[in-house]
Specification:
This protein is 47% helix and 12% strand. With 95 residues, the protein is mainly alpha-helical.
């Protein structure tokens, strides 16, 4: 089973992008603000479709289908932490 896991890991084409996203360090408040604005706090695709006040159907959050979802959310979290810990800013506008 471990050989299958090793083969699977070697074929992960997004692995370099994942590593790059995980190693980005935030040292600039402008970059942190940009990331917090660009990466939404909630999935923008999730919604209820209603007609005449009746709910017809629900579109589930599709963000988790993004193969880089965890890394992007982690980057946003690091940006928020930078703004709070290093800059002492209030981040309630981004929540």
């Amino acid at each position: 089973m471990t050989s299958f896991m090793q083969v699977h890991l070697h074929k992960d084409l997004l692995h370099p992008v994942r590593e790059w996203l995980e190693t980005i360090e935030i040292h600039n408040s402008k970059l942190a603000h940009f990331l917090c604005k660009a990466i939404p706090a909630q999935c923008p695709f999730e919604r209820d479709i209603t007609l005449f006040g009746r709910k017809l159907f629900h579109i589930p959050p599709m963000c988790k289908l993004n193969p880089l979802y965890e890394e992007v959310v982690g980057l946003r979290f690091r940006a928020l932490c930078y703004l709070v810990d290093e800059c002492g800013e209030d981040i309630t506008a981004y929540c």
